[in-house]
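// run 5 | inverse folding | seed 20
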C-alpha cells in the first residue's frame, strides 16, 4: 500500500512539473506614452531587441489615457504572456493596422452587407499623421528601453517635431 501511495505521489509531482510554464523569463513592462505632453491613446507600441539582447521583442496597445502594458513575443505561445525579457530595445510607436476602438461585428448579426474586416482608409496626400514618421520605424526611432530585472515602467515622450 505504501508503494502505491509513493508511486501515485511521484506521478502527480512529475505531471505538475511537466505542466509548469516554460519559456523565457519575463518581467512586467508598463508605462505611459505622450505626444507633446498629451496622452497618446490607441496606438501600437513595439519593442525590438538591440544587438546582445536574447529576445524576439514585445508589444501592446496604449489605452485612451496613454497607459499601456506589454505582452512578450514568444514563439509557440498559445496564451498571452505579459512582460518582456530583460535587455535593451528600440521602441517603435505606430498607428494600428486596424482601429483599436473599432467594434467588431459578428457576421450574420447585421442587415448590412457583410465584409470580413473593415480596412482603415489610407492616409490622404497632405494629411498629417498623429505620430511623426521617425517613431514608426525601428531604424530611425530615437526611443529606447532598458528592461530591468524586476520590471520596468516606461515613460515615452514623443514630440511632433520628431
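// decoded
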Amino acid at each position: 500500500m505504501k508503494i502505491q501511495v509513493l508511486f501515485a505521489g511521484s506521478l502527480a509531482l512529475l505531471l505538475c512539473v511537466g505542466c509548469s510554464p516554460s519559456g523565457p523569463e519575463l518581467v512586467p513592462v508598463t508605462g505611459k506614452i505622450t505626444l507633446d505632453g498629451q496622452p497618446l491613446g490607441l496606438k501600437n507600441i513595439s519593442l525590438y531587441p538591440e544587438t546582445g539582447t536574447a529576445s524576439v521583442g514585445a508589444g501592446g496597445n496604449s489605452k485612451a489615457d496613454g497607459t499601456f502594458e506589454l505582452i512578450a513575443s514568444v514563439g509557440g505561445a498559445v496564451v498571452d504572456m505579459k512582460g518582456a525579457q530583460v535587455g535593451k530595445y528600440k521602441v517603435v510607436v505606430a498607428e494600428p493596422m486596424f482601429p483599436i476602438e473599432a467594434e467588431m461585428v459578428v457576421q450574420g448579426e447585421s442587415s448590412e452587407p457583410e465584409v470580413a474586416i473593415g480596412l482603415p482608409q489610407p492616409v490622404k496626400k497632405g494629411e498629417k499623421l498623429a505620430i511623426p514618421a521617425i517613431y514608426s520605424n525601428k531604424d530611425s526611432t530615437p526611443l529606447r528601453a532598458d528592461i530591468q530585472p524586476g520590471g520596468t515602467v516606461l515613460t515615452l515622450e514623443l514630440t511632433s517635431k520628431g
